Amino acid sequence: LRRGVFQGDSTSPTIFNLTNDPIHKMVRASGRGCPALGLDRPSGSSGFADDTSCHTGGSDAIPAMRVIVNTIGPVYIWLGMFFNMKKSVISAIDHSTGLPMPTDSITVNGVPFSVLSPSEAHKHLGVRMTLTGAFAAEKARVRSEMQRRLDELQKDEVLPPPLKELTITIGVTSIFRYSAGVVPWTKSEMEVITKMWIRAYKY
């Protein structure tokens, strides 16, 4: 380790925020992002833990993204925070036609990003969604993860009912609550989830 601090060090989150926050300010200052509700200027990036998503829109979305990447790329390299190109993907769609847009002109050190289909889900702020606005992948993950945890809880022979109820509240319903504010669940889907919880409380 030649610079920085170890992951888990008590000062690590503060130092990371001090170095990463200016990146988001640079993106916003470029004015090349998407309009965002409640902001007086476009917001072209979102941060979630140590992940960063950049987004643009409009007729010049591709050139705008190129500007953003070319602006923040050298800064990340200077900070010693390199792009993980194996985990980094890019996706673009023309909403007027529903067709993907070419993104090969957006590169880091001459290397283009792996392309993600607009109909394929990606994680944005921890929520799985597509550029077409579909949340099917997030719904499937929420249901399967809740069911997996409930199945494991059913095997327990030690916890008394009050602690099992607390376990469901903390460890199961929280999976749903995390993305509930943005995922458009239907009434029938909600009824299925409600019955899942009720069955768990009865056990």
CA-CA gap between termini: 51 Å
Provide a count of the helices: 6
Main β-sheet description? 2 strands, antiparallel
Number of strands: 10
**Poorly predicted runs:** none
Would you tell me the structural class of the helices and strands? alpha+beta
Helicity, as a percent range? 40-55%
Q: Overall 3D geometry? A: globular
Radius of gyration computed on alpha carbons: 21 Å
The average pLDDT is 87
Strand order of the largest sheet: 1-2
In short:
The chain is an alpha+beta fold and 203 residues long.
Structural notes for this entry:
- By secondary structure, this protein is an alpha+beta fold.
- The chain has six helices and ten strands.
- The protein has helices spanning 12-30, 61-79, 136-154, 161-171, 173-180, 187-202, and strands at 45-48, 51-54, 89-90, 93-94, 99-100, 107-108, 111-112, 114-115, 122-124, 127-129.
- It has a two-stranded antiparallel sheet with strand order 1-2.
- A hairpin with a 2-residue loop joins β9 (122-124) and β10 (127-129).
- α3 (136-154) packs antiparallel against α4 (161-171).
- The longest helix has 19 residues, at 12-30.
- It is globular and about 55 Å long.
- The model has no long low-confidence stretch (mean pLDDT 87).
